[in-house]
Write a structure and sequence with these properties.
The chain is α+β, with helices and mostly antiparallel strands. It has a single domain, classed as 2,3-Dihydroxybiphenyl 1,2-Dioxygenase, domain 1, CATH 3.10.180. The protein is built from 6 helices and 15 strands. The strands form 2 sheets. Strands 9-10-11-8-12-15-14-13 form an 8-stranded mixed β-sheet. A 7-stranded mixed β-sheet has the order 2-3-1-4-7-6-5, with helices on one face. Strand 10 and strand 11 form a beta hairpin. Bound molecules: fe (ii) ion (FE2). Fe (ii) ion (FE2) binds next to strand 8 and strand 12.
Length: about 300
């Protein structure tokens, strides 16, 4: 796979100041209030003002200029306009209007968090001590892991990402959702259907389930209405999850323990077990809220896109 990194997203929101404050609460760092960094991923979000919330762009990394040339060739093959200038390949996915910028980047390297084995029936590695997991540990997530994008053309957007950019399918339900990867994560972009393009959620990797819990709890202590869905464990991707709402109305997920795919053949032969629609949401946890399928602000999004079309 020539793609190896989801580096950043560029989003437009109506209130960049509120968005910046939220990212500060999350523990992301910023020097200017518009670019926000995670500890492991570097700059991961570019925020600009827009009349309605939308995903403007996605930055991806490859290993080499040869990789860029390969992708440019595939874009040409599918008839997609693009530019390749100064080691940066730029193209626009036609159905979502997301601008993809692709350039050579170093591979992601992450330090290993300090792990501890839990007590279990017949096994008590921790004795005469409280669990480290109970102590306050709200801290920044490690990195941006994936995004989920709504599109008016599920097939068109899916095929563009696979055929032109080189994403791989990890799991999918035709016309409903496609989980695609450009790294060893189970998914980095998922595609869902929608009346208009929208950013359904964006997701941040945490060390473990306690990291997820402490971070989400910190943000919910400030505003309990931020809670959207969770706590639970997804079937697809296997990750623990907790979803909150950011100030713009997009959902933010904190996750840990996602499936890793570093042998495509083994995933296809062993890992990718059959899944049914009952598996789309959860292995366990609270029921998926309706706003997860139809955003509460769908009318705002529709009028926003209509105004752009005029
Ligand atoms: Fe997610």
């Amino acid at each position: 796979m020539s793609l190896h990194r989801l580096q950043a997203i560029r989003i437009g929101v109506s209130d960049p100041t509120a968005q910046a404050a939220f990212y500060g609460e999350m523990g992301l760092t910023s020097n200017n209030g518009s670019l926000f960094d995670s500890p492991d991923g570097g700059t991961q979000i570019h925020v600009s003002e827009a009349p309605f919330r939308r995903l403007l762009g996605v930055d991806l990394g490859v290993d080499s200029e040869a990789d860029l040339a390969d992708i440019a060739g595939r874009l040409t093959a599918v008839g997609a306009p693009h530019t390749l200038i100064s080691n940066e390949l730029v193209c626009v996915e036609p159905h979502t209007h997301i601008e993809f910028r692709i350039r050579p980047l170093p591979r992601l390297e992450q330090s290993i968090p300090e792990a501890f084995a839990p007590n279990a029936p017949g096994s008590w590695p921790r004795r005469n001590r409280r669990s480290p997991g109970v102590f306050p540990g709200a801290r920044s997530p490690r990195r941006l892991g994936h995004i989920v994008v709504g599109t008016p053309s599920w097939r068109g957007t899916r095929d563009f990402l696979i055929d032109a950019l080189g994403f791989k399918v990890s799991d999918e339900f035709t016309d409903i959702i496609a989980f695609l990867r450009c790294t060893t994560d189970h998914h980095n972009i998922a595609i869902v259907g929608g009346e208009v393009p929208f950013l359904q959620h964006y997701s941040w990797e945490c060390d473990d389930v306690d990291h997820v819990g402490h971070l989400a709890t910190k943000l919910l202590t400030v505003d309990a209405d931020r809670h959207t869905w969770g706590f639970g464990r997804h079937f697809i991707g296997s990750n623990f999850m907790w979803y909150l709402r950011d100030p713009s109305g997009s959902f933010v997920e904190f996750y840990s323990d996602m499936d890793r795919i570093d042998d495509d053949a083994e995933w296809e032969s062993v890992g990718r077990t059959a899944v049914g629609l009952e598996n789309v949401g959860l292995a366990w946890g609270p029921r998926m809220p309706m706003e997860f399928i139809v955003p509460k602000d769908i009318d705002v999004l529709k009028s926003g896109w209509a105004s752009l079309d005029r």
